[in-house]
Each structure stands twice: as structure tokens, then as C-alpha cells.
Amino acid sequence: MVGRDQEIQSLGALLTGERLVTVHGPPGIGKSWLAHRAAEAELLMGRQVIWISPAGAPAGAGLGSTARRLGGLDLDDALVVVDDCEHLGPHARTEIVGLLNEFRGISLLATARRRLYLAGEAGLLLGPLDAPEALRMFTEEAAAAGEQPPRLRAVDGPEAAARRDRVADLCDRLDAIPGAIRHAASRLGEESLEAVLEDPLASPAAHGPLADARNLYLSCGPDERLLWERLSVFEGRFDLSAVQAVCASGALPVAAVPAALDRLAPCLLLTDVEGRYRMPAAARRVGRARLDAGGERWAVVLHHRRHYAAVAGEAAVLWRAGRHRQAQELALSARPDLDAAMNPGTAPLSPAAEAETASGIAVSLWFLWITGGRGPEGREHLERALDAVLGPRPARALWLLAYLMVCQGELEAADPVLAEAWPLAVRDGDSTCIGQLAQVRGIARLWAGEADEAATEFAEALELLPRNPAFGPGRGMTVALLALALVQSEPEAAMDVLADSAEWTPTAPDTQADAWTRFVLAEISRWEGDPLRARRYAAQAVRLMLGLRDDRSAAVAAELVADIELGLGNHRAAARLLGASARSGPHAPANGPVPVGAAQRHTRRWERLCSLLGEEQLRREQEHGAREGLHLVIGQEQSNG
């Protein structure tokens, strides 16, 4: 086994100072292997080690015969290892205490699915492997099973890279649990990699991760079994509040959930540093089979969808409150389950019945798709939900679809979607949606170079949008858009828009609006003949956009900084900024508004820099910027400024 160096060191340190140490964790995590390694290390240091495996005796047989066998031995400072305490039955704790009391000179190392919770016990919880270690373990186990190592270890060529990516994905699907990885890799001696990738958990009924999970399920009490079954609907990590919302009903009331979870979690679930749980793939498959057999799956899945619709709504509220990073983190931490809830094709009743819930979640998460380069993902979810709608498609979902199309540069494709959404929003009396549709039309006009038409659309959006829209960008963003549409041809009018609006202040909570407002202020400062102030505003815009993980918009703002550096004579700085911004694809529409003529200016910049620096130095500076990245380069330029 690989990837356990830290755990080996930690266990060795515990064994030097503690009399009772328990290595605990779910099945397949490597408890017995770690105990073997610890025992070998103690033997090498000259310590007497006695290995006891209750698994070889009848269940619940106890340690009485072992104690009688040990009675005639000199056990001073001996290490006794009791592997797999579950086979001692319900009296395991009593048996361990009896052994420690009868033989005062021994230290005891136990392996168990959960801690024994005895006085003086030190516990070591084993978790999954890190991703690189999991991949290396699969590679080595596959080689031992007969798979040719070069086929997995090759470092050159797209085919080898694709193969490694697929194996890495397999390890992730198996939760990086050593036993599951070892099982999947061992099959390569008789099966193809394709067969293993298709179902890495497949095995004869008598052994393997699925068999271990079934045996553990059968050993649980009624509440734990019922909770196990219902937990199987989760796709990713979850906490107690999610468990109570999704799993509590009927025979498992909400008050009984915490105790059942406390009993089940230590021996089954994986826990992260934030205290959230994850159910391993084998346990999830066993739970789903039982849930289907009991006829409860449809009800639990509906609870799951309603809960994650509420999570998406909570993330949207955080975004509107200006807590952008928290909104993104909440949405990203729940992504596997949000993705599942946005798929009407897996709805327990019918796709049409859940289409509105799915599209509603996508709309709540609009900010996630617009920032961070996730537009294609959001569009895929949204289009799948809209395809399942039987009647008129929801206007708000159509607004988001058009917004994503515009962000991806599909201006003509967005027009019929906007035309479809408009009368539906009017019919519903949804002035917020009408205002957001006007804003999207304005962004499309801005990208097409029609600044005057864009300004008209943004002005209309300002009249329609409430102070705190229930979805989509706020009024502060609309003000920034209007000023952006005006600044190239009418800088004074753009100044008036910002001055007359109470939507923007340097401490406003809408970071997206703040970033683009500073972009406009940079343009205004440059027009006023103050390039140093312009550079400061533009650099601030870049950093704010990077903080939102909106790299493509940050690249557009970085090009403005490069323009200003060019005007100041800082040619190398401009080249580095352009090299760094090129990694984010500035030729494509950003995830927000884009200044008129951006693509043409981009070409002119490179031509001018080439004439000033020469091709060779320009290439070196560009590569330097690309290597450093925009985060670092923009910080360097600000400190130099």
C-alpha cells in the first residue's frame, strides 16, 4: 500500500506513549494493513508482538481462550494487536478492558470500524488516500495483477494522458479507498480496463467492497439500516442538517436522526476536515438497492430535490447580500447533489413534473454559471430542464439561457430566446424578469458594437428592476453597464450616470458591479488625462474580478491596464499583462459586459508592442506573463506603480 507514511509515523508515536491505541475507519480503508506495518516496526526494534485475529473464531467468542494462552508467557512491554474488534461482538469493550487489566505490562493496538471509547484510549482515524497516491496504488496493483506497467505509467502522448485521467476518475469514484482500489485493479489480470472502468465494484457475491458493505448493513440496527438506505440518495458531501431534511420521515422521525447518524457514521461514512460526511460508493449502491426494494426511493429523492432547491436559494440570497465568496463556496460544496437535483430525467415521477424545480435551481445559481467560466455547464443543465417542460417554458429560465448564450458569443441564437421570454414575462407581470431581459439585450448590443442601442436597453432595465432583484444582477451592475456603454463616446455622460446613481459606492456589497464600475472609472480617468489613477482603478477591477473567479472578465480588464502601461511607456509590463491575460481567452466574450471594439484593440496592441520590443523580447515577456499568471502579474504591476 502507498500513501500512508504520515499515518505510519503517527501510529508509531502513539505506540511509544499510549497503552491502548485504536486504528479505526470504514471497511477497506486499510486498518489491518497499518496495524501489520506497526507490528513489523515494533518487532524490528526488538519488542515482542502478539497478533490476535478474532475473525478466525466464531462471532462473539471473546478473548477468554487467548487470555489463557497468554497466561504462561512473559509479556512485559509486549504489544498485543487485536485485529477487527467487531468479531468480538457486543462485549468487545469489556474483553479489551479485561485483557489490559489482567496483563498490566502489555500495550494493546486494536483495529475497529469505530473507536472503543475506553478510558485512556488514543484513536487514529484513517481516511481516503490523496488523489496522486490513489492513482499510484492502482498502477502498482494493476501491475501485480498482470497489467503491463508502461500502459498505465506512460508519460507521453495524448492516449496515455487520457488513460491516466480515466483511471484517476475511477479512483475518485471509489472515494480513494484502498480496499476498493485494490479490488478494481486486481481484476485487470482477467478483465479489460474498459470492463473495470464501467463497473469498478463488480465482484463475486462472496468478496469485495460490495460484499463488505452488505455484511456491515446486515449488522446494523433498524434505525441505522433505514438511515443508510436514505443516505444513499446523496451524491456528494452532506451535513447533519441535510440528513435531517432529506432522511427524516415516517419510521425515522427527525429527533431520531442525530443518534442514528452518530452510531452509523464512525463505521461507514467518510468525514472531511469540516465535519461533513460522504458515503462510499459501495455503501451507496447497497443502500440504493435496499431503498428500491422497500419502495421508498421516490419519496426520499423528492425530499432531496426540495432540500437542494432550498440550498440553491440560500446561495442566491448570499450573493444578493454581497457575500459572493460564501455564495460560491456553498454552491460548489453542494455541486454533486445540486447537479442531481437539476436533472429531471432522474425524477421519480416524470421528467416534466420536476422540470420546473430543475430550471429553478439553475436560475438561482445564475452567478455560478456567469462567473468562473462555468457557462457551458449551466447551459447544459438549463437546456436539459427546459427540454422536459411540456407547456410554455418559464420566462426566468429563458432569461438565463439567453444570458449564457450572449456570454458565449452566440448573439444571433440568443435573439429568438429573448423574443420567446419577453411576452411570457409580460403575461406573468414579472417586471424583474423584463428588466433582466432588457439588460441581456443590452449586453448583446454592447458586444456587437452598438453602444447607443445598448445604453437604451440598460436605461430601460434600470426603470424596471427593483432595488434588490430576486434573481440576476442587481441595479448596481445595470448602472455600471450603462456607464460602460457611454464611456467610449460620451465620457461626461458616463460620469453623470455614476455620479447621479446611489447604487455604487466603494463599499457597495455587489462586487461584480464594483469591478465593472472601477473599469469605467479607469476609462474616465484616462480620458481626463490621469493615467496613474486610471491604472489604479483598472488594476482594482482586475483583482475584484479574479476574486469572483471571473478570469475572462479579469483578462479584459487586464488588457485595459496593459493599454495604460503602453501609454506610460512601460512596454515590458504591458507585454507581460497581455501574456497573462491571454491564458483566459480575451478574444471570447467575457462572462460580463465587454467594451466595444475589444477584439480590434487587442490586435493593435500586439502590433505596436512588436514594433517597440521586437518579436523575440515580446515573446519572452509574453511567456513570462503566461507563466506567472494574472494574479501574480497584476500584483507586481501595482507594487511597481
Report on this model:
The structure is a single chain. The chain is mainly alpha-helical. It has five domains: 5-125, Rossmann fold (3-Layer(aba) Sandwich); 131-202, no CATH class; 322-391, no CATH class; 392-483, Serine Threonine Protein Phosphatase 5, Tetratricopeptide repeat; 505-640, Serine Threonine Protein Phosphatase 5, Tetratricopeptide repeat. Helices cover 64% and strands 4% of the residues. The chain has 33 helices and seven strands. It has helices spanning 5-17, 31-44, 64-70, 92-102, 131-145, 149-153, 158-173, 178-186, 193-198, 209-218, 222-231, 240-247, 257-268, 281-293, 297-320, 324-333, 335-341, 351-364, 366-370, 375-387, 395-407, 411-428, 431-447, 451-464, 475-487, 491-500, 511-527, 531-547, 551-568, 571-582, 598-613, 615-628, 630-640, and strands spanning 20-24, 49-52, 79-82, 107-112, 121-125, 270-271, 277-278. The strands form two sheets. The protein has a five-stranded parallel sheet, covered by helices on one side. The chain has a two-stranded antiparallel ribbon with strand order 6-7. α3 links the parallel β2 and β3. The longest helix has 24 residues, at 297-320. The model is unreliable at 149-154, 585-591 and 594-600 (pLDDT under 50).
